[in-house]
Amino acid sequence: MTHTEPDTDALLAQVAQGQAHARSLLLLRHRERLARLVACRLDRRLAARVDPSDVVQEVLAEADRKLERFLQERPLPFYPWLRRLALEQLALLHRRHVRTAKRTVQREAPGILHLPEESAAELAERLATSATSPTQAAIRAELRQRIRHALAALPDRDREVLILRHLEELSVAQSAEVLGISEGAVKVRHLRALARIRDLLDEKEGDAP
User: Fold this and answer.
1) Residues 62, 28, 31, 98: what is their CA dihedral angle, to the nearest 10 degrees?
2) What was the pLDDT predicted at 111?
3) Where are the alpha helices (H) located in the chain, listed in sequence order?
4) What are the b/e assignments for 72-102, b being 16+ CB within 10 Å?
5) Which long-range contacts (CB under 8 A, 24 or more apart) does 74-78 make?
6) Greatest CA separation found in the chain?
7) Which of 16, 39, 64, 80 has its CB 3.0 to 4.6 Å from that of 76, i.e. a possible disulfide?
8) What's the pLDDT band for 48 if we cut at 50, 70, 90?
9) What is the pTM of this model?
């Protein structure tokens, strides 16, 4: 069973009592987290047309409009609900600005694990950096490329936990809340994903002439 953060719960209770100041604090509390989400998920082909900060602002404005309904229905813990709004907004922008004749709405649907090339490269860089020392730049560059290939071979759910932990920078508890699983399950999935990457790297090294 997952739990929302106590401060968020307290703010939600105050919002339900009609405290406007709590409403503002509740939305501002999650701005930075949303900004990281948008930064790693926004297709770079939209850079000239879409300002990430405007996307975050629009998501918060939509959340504000829908907050009363959220309080009545509580379909999810607050941040996963807010994050879902953000993913829906990103999918809408992508369909509007980037879609081609070969793409379908289903392939653009929120929840599909899709990362821009730059974000995939950043994830590989962070994993490579954690595995090597700063003085091993050449080794890290080669490792980064190998990790990119390994990430592409991971099951979606294992790759997802790496994105949450290393790109969106969510804690174990926050990741558990987003995924709807226990913190223990997040830890197991995270360790399994890292172990799978190591196995894939070893296989690749073994195939080298």
Assistant:
1) 20
2) 38
3) 6-16, 20-29, 31-41, 52-73, 78-97, 117-131, 137-153, 156-166, 172-179, 183-207
4) eeeebbbbbbbbbbbbebbbebbeeeeeeee
5) 77/2, 77/3, 77/4, 77/177, 78/4, 78/8, 78/12, 78/26, 78/30
6) 68
7) 80
8) confident
9) 0.79
